[in-house]
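tool_call: predict_structure(chain=1)
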Amino acid sequence: MTKVTLTGYIIVPKNELEPVISALVLHKKLTLEEIGCLTFSVTQDSKNQQRFNVFEEFIDKQVFEKHQERVKQSEWGNVTVNVSRHYQVMLSENI
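tool_result:
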């Protein structure tokens, strides 16, 4: 199987910080409950409150794509429509 790792960050418009921070709690919970999610972390940067660092790992590409589809239909997807995303997605063989 090929594990999927996403790393990077998002930049949230200043006037949208409050709803994004509020929605993040449920987004983290739901993602960590997804079958095939290995790791999921979204943390607000200590130096730039508009930046949130992201690290995700899923057991395979199919699970990762299912996660992406769920997110598009979620509250998180709605409140983050205006964020700037800066991600790198890597595939690696599970051992």
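agent: The chain has a mean pLDDT of 95. Proceeding to next step.
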